[in-house]
Write a structure and sequence with these properties.
Layout lengths: L4 H12 L3 H8 L3 H8 L7 H12 L3
Helix pairs in contact: 2-3, 2-4
Length: 60
């Protein structure tokens, strides 16, 4: 089974226990935007998507 990049980041976020509110604060957006993004209902700006990925990839 193959996953999209978005699905991989969502699974990683959940595995690490990162709340959407944490990522949203870092990305300077509303958590609902990220929730809709993860569900495929909204496509935020590249800046927000990059911040989302950066936060999850560098989470410690």
């Amino acid at each position: 089974m193959q996953f999209t990049e978005k699905e991989m980041f969502k699974m990683q976020r959940q595995k690490l226990g990162i709340k959407l509110a944490e990522v949203a604060k870092y990305a300077k957006c509303d958590p609902s935007y990220l929730s809709k993004y993860e569900k495929g209902k909204y496509e935020p700006s590249p800046k927000i998507i990059n911040a989302y990925k950066e936060y999850i990839a560098n989470y410690q």
